Protein backbone atom coordinates (compact mmCIF):
# COMPACT_ATOMS: atom_id res chain seq x y z
CA UNK A 1 0.00 0.00 0.00
CA UNK A 2 0.60 4.53 -0.85
CA UNK A 3 1.69 8.47 0.65
CA UNK A 4 3.68 5.29 1.37
CA UNK A 5 2.05 2.11 0.18
CA UNK A 6 1.70 -0.61 2.74
CA UNK A 7 0.49 -2.29 -0.41
CA UNK A 8 -0.44 -1.17 -3.91
CA UNK A 9 -3.56 0.93 -4.38
CA UNK A 10 -6.28 -1.44 -5.44
CA UNK A 11 -7.54 -0.48 -8.82
CA UNK A 12 -8.04 -3.39 -11.12
CA UNK A 13 -6.98 -2.78 -14.71
CA UNK A 14 -9.46 -3.80 -17.34
CA UNK A 15 -8.13 -6.16 -19.96
CA UNK A 16 -8.71 -3.51 -22.65
CA UNK A 17 -6.26 -5.25 -24.97
CA UNK A 18 -6.70 -8.78 -26.27
CA UNK A 19 -4.19 -10.89 -24.35
CA UNK A 20 -4.10 -14.55 -23.38
CA UNK A 21 -5.58 -15.11 -19.93
CA UNK A 22 -3.33 -15.51 -16.94
CA UNK A 23 -2.89 -19.03 -15.64
CA UNK A 24 -3.01 -19.84 -11.93
CA UNK A 25 -1.33 -23.23 -11.44
CA UNK A 26 -2.45 -23.56 -7.82
CA UNK A 27 -6.04 -22.60 -8.58
CA UNK A 28 -7.82 -21.07 -5.60
CA UNK A 29 -5.47 -22.64 -3.07
CA UNK A 30 -4.22 -20.27 -0.36
CA UNK A 31 -1.93 -21.09 2.58
CA UNK A 32 -3.45 -20.50 5.99
CA UNK A 33 -1.73 -18.01 8.29
CA UNK A 34 1.13 -19.72 10.08
CA UNK A 35 1.41 -22.49 7.49
CA UNK A 36 3.03 -22.80 4.06
CA UNK A 37 2.39 -24.20 0.59
CA UNK A 38 5.29 -25.54 -1.48
CA UNK A 39 5.08 -23.90 -4.93
CA UNK A 40 8.33 -25.34 -6.31
CA UNK A 41 10.94 -27.67 -4.80
CA UNK A 42 12.29 -25.93 -1.72
CA UNK A 43 10.17 -22.77 -2.17
CA UNK A 44 7.30 -22.21 0.26
CA UNK A 45 4.52 -19.64 0.10
CA UNK A 46 3.40 -17.89 3.31
CA UNK A 47 0.39 -15.59 3.41
CA UNK A 48 0.06 -13.15 6.31
CA UNK A 49 -2.64 -10.66 7.18
CA UNK A 50 -2.63 -6.88 6.79
CA UNK A 51 -5.07 -4.52 8.54
CA UNK A 52 -5.99 -2.72 5.31
CA UNK A 53 -8.34 -3.07 2.38
CA UNK A 54 -5.62 -5.14 0.75
CA UNK A 55 -5.66 -7.67 3.55
CA UNK A 56 -2.66 -9.90 2.89
CA UNK A 57 0.94 -10.11 1.80
CA UNK A 58 2.72 -13.11 0.31
CA UNK A 59 6.08 -14.01 1.83
CA UNK A 60 8.48 -16.69 0.64
CA UNK A 61 10.73 -19.21 2.37
CA UNK A 62 13.54 -20.72 0.30
CA UNK A 63 15.65 -23.67 1.45
CA UNK A 64 19.22 -22.50 1.71
CA UNK A 65 22.70 -23.29 2.91
CA UNK A 66 25.38 -20.80 3.81
CA UNK A 67 28.85 -20.93 5.40
CA UNK A 68 28.57 -21.47 9.15
CA UNK A 69 29.29 -18.19 10.97
CA UNK A 70 31.62 -19.78 13.56
CA UNK A 71 32.82 -23.07 12.04
CA UNK A 72 35.26 -22.74 9.15
CA UNK A 73 34.53 -24.91 6.14
CA UNK A 74 31.13 -25.99 7.43
CA UNK A 75 27.93 -25.25 5.50
CA UNK A 76 24.83 -24.53 7.59
CA UNK A 77 21.41 -25.67 6.41
CA UNK A 78 18.46 -23.32 6.81
CA UNK A 79 16.22 -20.83 5.05
CA UNK A 80 16.16 -17.50 3.30
CA UNK A 81 13.05 -15.47 4.11
CA UNK A 82 11.90 -13.09 1.37
CA UNK A 83 9.92 -10.17 2.86
CA UNK A 84 8.55 -10.01 6.38
CA UNK A 85 5.08 -8.52 7.00
CA UNK A 86 4.37 -5.53 9.22
CA UNK A 87 5.42 -5.50 12.86
CA UNK A 88 2.32 -6.25 14.90
CA UNK A 89 1.37 -9.03 17.35
CA UNK A 90 -0.56 -11.03 14.76
CA UNK A 91 2.36 -11.16 12.33
CA UNK A 92 4.84 -12.10 15.06
CA UNK A 93 2.53 -14.90 16.16
CA UNK A 94 2.18 -16.12 12.57
CA UNK A 95 5.97 -16.28 12.23
CA UNK A 96 6.23 -18.22 15.49
CA UNK A 97 3.74 -20.71 14.07
CA UNK A 98 5.81 -20.94 10.90
CA UNK A 99 8.89 -21.64 13.00
CA UNK A 100 7.08 -24.59 14.59
CA UNK A 101 5.34 -25.98 11.51
CA UNK A 102 7.55 -25.13 8.52
CA UNK A 103 11.18 -24.46 9.41
CA UNK A 104 11.95 -28.08 10.39
CA UNK A 105 14.13 -26.92 13.31
CA UNK A 106 16.38 -25.09 10.85
CA UNK A 107 17.31 -21.41 11.26
CA UNK A 108 16.58 -18.46 9.01
CA UNK A 109 20.02 -17.73 7.54
CA UNK A 110 19.18 -14.39 5.91
CA UNK A 111 16.27 -12.02 5.47
CA UNK A 112 15.94 -10.66 1.95
CA UNK A 113 13.63 -7.65 1.51
CA UNK A 114 12.43 -6.63 -1.95
CA UNK A 115 11.72 -3.04 -0.90
CA UNK A 116 11.17 -0.81 2.12
CA UNK A 117 7.39 -0.54 2.31
CA UNK A 118 5.99 -1.55 5.71
CA UNK A 119 4.41 -4.85 4.71
CA UNK A 120 7.76 -5.99 3.32
CA UNK A 121 10.19 -4.43 5.82
CA UNK A 122 8.22 -4.27 9.07
CA UNK A 123 9.46 -7.37 10.89
CA UNK A 124 12.93 -7.53 9.33
CA UNK A 125 14.54 -6.30 12.54
CA UNK A 126 12.78 -8.98 14.61
CA UNK A 127 13.60 -11.83 12.24
CA UNK A 128 17.22 -10.72 11.92
CA UNK A 129 17.63 -10.45 15.68
CA UNK A 130 15.84 -13.70 16.48
CA UNK A 131 17.98 -15.79 14.12
CA UNK A 132 21.10 -13.59 14.03
CA UNK A 133 20.55 -13.34 10.30
CA UNK A 134 21.78 -10.57 7.98
CA UNK A 135 19.45 -8.30 6.04
CA UNK A 136 19.84 -8.31 2.24
CA UNK A 137 18.34 -5.29 0.48
CA UNK A 138 19.30 -2.62 -2.07
CA UNK A 139 21.07 0.47 -0.77
CA UNK A 140 18.36 2.95 -1.78
CA UNK A 141 15.66 0.89 -0.09
CA UNK A 142 17.71 0.53 3.09
CA UNK A 143 18.49 4.23 3.31
CA UNK A 144 14.87 5.17 2.57
CA UNK A 145 13.69 2.83 5.32
CA UNK A 146 16.10 4.42 7.80
CA UNK A 147 14.77 7.90 6.92
CA UNK A 148 11.15 6.80 7.13
CA UNK A 149 11.66 5.02 10.43
CA UNK A 150 13.10 8.22 11.92
CA UNK A 151 10.18 10.30 10.63
CA UNK A 152 12.24 12.02 7.92
CA UNK A 153 9.96 11.06 5.07
CA UNK A 154 7.02 11.95 2.85
CA UNK A 155 4.53 9.85 4.75
CA UNK A 156 2.85 12.60 6.74
CA UNK A 157 3.51 15.91 8.40
CA UNK A 158 3.73 19.48 7.18
CA UNK A 159 5.80 18.91 4.02
CA UNK A 160 3.35 16.32 2.74
CA UNK A 161 0.39 18.57 3.50
CA UNK A 162 1.99 21.45 1.59
CA UNK A 163 2.66 19.16 -1.37
CA UNK A 164 -0.93 17.92 -1.47
CA UNK A 165 -2.32 21.44 -1.05
CA UNK A 166 -0.22 22.60 -3.99
CA UNK A 167 -1.98 19.96 -6.06
CA UNK A 168 -5.48 20.97 -5.04
CA UNK A 169 -6.26 18.98 -1.89
CA UNK A 170 -7.20 21.84 0.44
CA UNK A 171 -9.82 20.49 2.86
CA UNK A 172 -8.46 21.39 6.32
CA UNK A 173 -10.11 18.53 8.21
CA UNK A 174 -8.73 15.93 5.80
CA UNK A 175 -5.27 17.47 5.69
CA UNK A 176 -5.20 17.44 9.49
CA UNK A 177 -5.29 13.66 9.24
CA UNK A 178 -2.34 13.75 6.84
CA UNK A 179 -0.41 15.97 9.27
CA UNK A 180 -0.90 13.35 11.98
CA UNK A 181 0.49 10.57 9.77
CA UNK A 182 4.11 11.50 10.45
CA UNK A 183 4.30 8.34 12.57
CA UNK A 184 2.66 6.13 9.94
CA UNK A 185 5.80 4.25 8.87
CA UNK A 186 7.43 3.69 12.28
CA UNK A 187 4.12 2.42 13.65
CA UNK A 188 4.61 -0.62 11.38
CA UNK A 189 8.41 -0.55 11.06
CA UNK A 190 9.66 0.50 14.50
CA UNK A 191 13.29 -0.46 13.90
CA UNK A 192 15.69 -1.11 11.02
CA UNK A 193 18.55 -3.63 11.26
CA UNK A 194 21.81 -1.72 11.82
CA UNK A 195 23.62 -3.24 8.83
CA UNK A 196 22.82 -4.90 5.52
CA UNK A 197 24.18 -6.81 2.54
CA UNK A 198 23.70 -4.88 -0.68
CA UNK A 199 21.55 -6.20 -3.53
CA UNK A 200 22.42 -4.77 -6.96
CA UNK A 201 20.77 -4.95 -10.35
CA UNK A 202 22.07 -7.89 -12.37
CA UNK A 203 23.92 -9.44 -9.44
CA UNK A 204 23.49 -13.17 -8.82
CA UNK A 205 22.22 -14.42 -5.46
CA UNK A 206 22.87 -18.09 -4.69
CA UNK A 207 20.11 -19.52 -2.49
CA UNK A 208 20.45 -23.24 -1.90
CA UNK A 209 20.74 -25.01 -5.24
CA UNK A 210 19.30 -22.09 -7.20
CA UNK A 211 20.95 -18.97 -8.58
CA UNK A 212 18.72 -15.92 -8.83
CA UNK A 213 19.45 -12.69 -10.67
CA UNK A 214 18.39 -9.34 -9.19
CA UNK A 215 16.08 -7.28 -11.42
CA UNK A 216 15.79 -3.68 -10.29
CA UNK A 217 12.51 -1.84 -10.55
CA UNK A 218 11.68 1.82 -10.11
CA UNK A 219 8.59 3.96 -9.72
CA UNK A 220 6.87 2.02 -6.94
CA UNK A 221 9.79 2.38 -4.54
CA UNK A 222 13.37 3.69 -4.71
CA UNK A 223 15.23 0.55 -5.87
CA UNK A 224 12.95 -2.49 -5.73
CA UNK A 225 14.62 -5.85 -6.31
CA UNK A 226 12.83 -8.81 -7.88
CA UNK A 227 14.57 -12.20 -8.12
CA UNK A 228 14.65 -14.25 -11.33
CA UNK A 229 15.70 -17.89 -11.60
CA UNK A 230 15.93 -18.31 -15.38
CA UNK A 231 16.94 -21.98 -15.24
CA UNK A 232 13.81 -23.02 -13.32
CA UNK A 233 11.58 -20.27 -14.81
CA UNK A 234 10.70 -18.59 -11.53
CA UNK A 235 10.28 -14.91 -10.65
CA UNK A 236 9.77 -13.47 -7.17
CA UNK A 237 8.23 -10.25 -8.42
CA UNK A 238 7.56 -8.33 -5.20
CA UNK A 239 5.17 -5.47 -6.00
CA UNK A 240 6.45 -4.84 -9.52
CA UNK A 241 4.23 -7.41 -11.25
CA UNK A 242 0.92 -8.33 -9.63
CA UNK A 243 -1.83 -10.45 -11.18
CA UNK A 244 -5.01 -8.50 -10.53
CA UNK A 245 -4.29 -5.05 -9.08
CA UNK A 246 -2.05 -2.28 -10.32
CA UNK A 247 1.00 -1.26 -8.35
CA UNK A 248 0.83 2.16 -6.74
CA UNK A 249 3.17 4.62 -8.46
CA UNK A 250 3.35 7.98 -6.69
CA UNK A 251 5.09 11.35 -6.67
CA UNK A 252 6.17 12.46 -3.19
CA UNK A 253 6.97 15.77 -1.55
CA UNK A 254 10.72 15.13 -1.44
CA UNK A 255 10.87 14.83 -5.25
CA UNK A 256 7.84 16.77 -6.49
CA UNK A 257 8.85 16.98 -10.16
CA UNK A 258 9.75 13.30 -10.54
CA UNK A 259 8.44 10.95 -13.20
CA UNK A 260 7.87 7.62 -11.40
CA UNK A 261 5.23 6.34 -13.81
CA UNK A 262 7.69 6.47 -16.71
CA UNK A 263 10.26 4.74 -14.50
CA UNK A 264 7.75 2.03 -13.64
CA UNK A 265 6.76 1.44 -17.27
CA UNK A 266 10.42 1.31 -18.28
CA UNK A 267 11.06 -1.21 -15.49
CA UNK A 268 8.37 -3.53 -16.87
CA UNK A 269 10.51 -3.87 -19.99
CA UNK A 270 13.02 -5.84 -17.92
CA UNK A 271 10.39 -8.55 -17.38
CA UNK A 272 8.69 -8.49 -20.77
CA UNK A 273 11.02 -11.17 -22.15
CA UNK A 274 10.02 -13.78 -19.57
CA UNK A 275 8.65 -16.99 -21.10
CA UNK A 276 4.94 -17.65 -20.61
CA UNK A 277 5.84 -20.67 -18.49
CA UNK A 278 7.61 -18.54 -15.89
CA UNK A 279 5.90 -18.98 -12.52
CA UNK A 280 5.53 -15.53 -11.00
CA UNK A 281 5.43 -15.30 -7.21
CA UNK A 282 3.86 -11.90 -6.43
CA UNK A 283 3.54 -10.10 -3.11
CA UNK A 284 -0.24 -9.87 -3.45
CA UNK A 285 -2.63 -12.23 -5.16
CA UNK A 286 -1.96 -15.80 -6.31
CA UNK A 287 1.07 -17.21 -8.12
CA UNK A 288 0.48 -17.00 -11.86
CA UNK A 289 1.91 -17.51 -15.34
CA UNK A 290 1.65 -15.07 -18.25
CA UNK A 291 4.12 -12.23 -17.69
CA UNK A 292 3.78 -10.77 -21.18
CA UNK A 293 -0.02 -10.72 -20.96
CA UNK A 294 0.03 -9.05 -17.57
CA UNK A 295 2.53 -6.41 -18.67
CA UNK A 296 0.39 -5.67 -21.73
CA UNK A 297 -2.67 -5.27 -19.50
CA UNK A 298 -0.84 -2.88 -17.17
CA UNK A 299 0.43 -0.79 -20.07
CA UNK A 300 -3.05 -0.62 -21.55
CA UNK A 301 -4.46 0.41 -18.18
CA UNK A 302 -2.06 3.32 -17.80
CA UNK A 303 -2.42 4.32 -21.46
CA UNK A 304 -6.19 4.52 -20.96
CA UNK A 305 -5.83 6.73 -17.88
CA UNK A 306 -3.31 8.98 -19.61
CA UNK A 307 -5.59 9.38 -22.63
CA UNK A 308 -8.51 10.27 -20.39
CA UNK A 309 -6.42 12.86 -18.58
CA UNK A 310 -5.28 14.41 -21.87
CA UNK A 311 -8.85 14.68 -23.06
CA UNK A 312 -10.07 16.18 -19.77
CA UNK A 313 -7.21 18.69 -19.65
CA UNK A 314 -8.08 19.80 -23.18
CA UNK A 315 -11.48 20.88 -21.85
CA UNK A 316 -10.25 22.68 -18.73
CA UNK A 317 -7.16 22.99 -16.58
CA UNK A 318 -7.12 20.37 -13.82
CA UNK A 319 -5.26 19.91 -10.57
CA UNK A 320 -4.32 16.42 -9.41
CA UNK A 321 -7.18 16.56 -6.92
CA UNK A 322 -9.57 17.48 -9.73
CA UNK A 323 -8.32 14.45 -11.65
CA UNK A 324 -8.97 11.86 -8.93
CA UNK A 325 -12.43 10.82 -10.24
CA UNK A 326 -10.91 10.13 -13.66
CA UNK A 327 -8.32 7.73 -12.27
CA UNK A 328 -10.23 6.18 -9.36
CA UNK A 329 -13.83 5.21 -10.09
CA UNK A 330 -14.91 4.78 -6.49
CA UNK A 331 -15.21 6.81 -3.32
CA UNK A 332 -11.94 7.27 -1.43
CA UNK A 333 -11.45 7.81 2.28
CA UNK A 334 -8.66 10.06 3.54
CA UNK A 335 -6.19 7.19 3.87
CA UNK A 336 -6.84 6.08 0.30
CA UNK A 337 -6.75 9.66 -0.97
CA UNK A 338 -3.17 10.08 0.25
CA UNK A 339 -2.17 7.20 -2.03
CA UNK A 340 -4.40 8.33 -4.89
CA UNK A 341 -3.05 11.90 -4.88
CA UNK A 342 0.49 10.67 -5.38
CA UNK A 343 -0.62 8.51 -8.27
CA UNK A 344 -2.64 11.31 -9.89
CA UNK A 345 0.41 13.59 -9.80
CA UNK A 346 2.48 10.75 -11.29
CA UNK A 347 0.17 10.50 -14.32
CA UNK A 348 0.04 14.26 -14.81
CA UNK A 349 3.80 14.64 -14.37
CA UNK A 350 4.43 12.03 -17.07
CA UNK A 351 2.33 13.99 -19.55
CA UNK A 352 3.84 17.32 -18.47
CA UNK A 353 7.45 16.12 -18.66
CA UNK A 354 6.76 14.57 -22.06
CA UNK A 355 5.57 17.98 -23.31
CA UNK A 356 1.98 16.82 -23.80
CA UNK A 357 0.59 19.03 -21.02
CA UNK A 358 1.55 22.44 -19.71
CA UNK A 359 1.73 23.06 -15.97
CA UNK A 360 1.23 26.38 -14.27
CA UNK A 361 0.69 27.57 -10.71
CA UNK A 362 -2.28 29.82 -10.13
CA UNK A 363 -2.55 32.79 -7.80
CA UNK A 364 -4.15 30.39 -5.31
CA UNK A 365 -0.89 28.40 -5.20
CA UNK A 366 -2.36 25.32 -6.90
CA UNK A 367 -0.70 23.55 -9.83
CA UNK A 368 -2.98 22.88 -12.78
CA UNK A 369 -2.38 21.08 -16.03
CA UNK A 370 -3.79 21.87 -19.43
CA UNK A 371 -3.06 21.24 -23.09
CA UNK A 372 -2.15 24.92 -23.48
CA UNK A 373 -1.02 27.63 -21.11
CA UNK A 374 -4.01 29.39 -19.51
TrEMBL record:
SMART domains: Lactamase_B (SM00849)
One Gene Ontology molecular-function label: hydrolase activity
Domain Metallo-beta-lactamase: 56-284
Gene3D superfamilies per record: Ribonuclease Z/Hydroxyacylglutathione hydrolase-like, Winged helix-like DNA-binding domain superfamily/Winged helix DNA-binding domain
Keywords, alphabetical: Hydrolase
Classification via SUPFAM superfamilies: Metallo-hydrolase/oxidoreductase
Pfam families tied to this protein: B_lactamase-like_C, Lactamase_B
Keyword Ribonucleoprotein: no
Protein name in the entry: Zn-dependent hydrolase
Amino acid sequence: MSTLPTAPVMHRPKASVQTPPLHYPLGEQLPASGSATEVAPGIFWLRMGLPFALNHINLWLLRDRMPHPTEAGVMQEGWTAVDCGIDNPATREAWLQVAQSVLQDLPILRVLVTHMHPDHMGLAHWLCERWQAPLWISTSEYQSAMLACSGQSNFGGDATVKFFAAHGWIKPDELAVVTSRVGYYPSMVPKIPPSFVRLMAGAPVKIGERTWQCISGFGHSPEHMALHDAHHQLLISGDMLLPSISTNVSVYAMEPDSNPLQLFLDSLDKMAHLPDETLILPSHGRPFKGAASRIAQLRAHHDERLSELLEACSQQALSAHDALPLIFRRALDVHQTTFAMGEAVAHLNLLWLAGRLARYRGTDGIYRFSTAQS
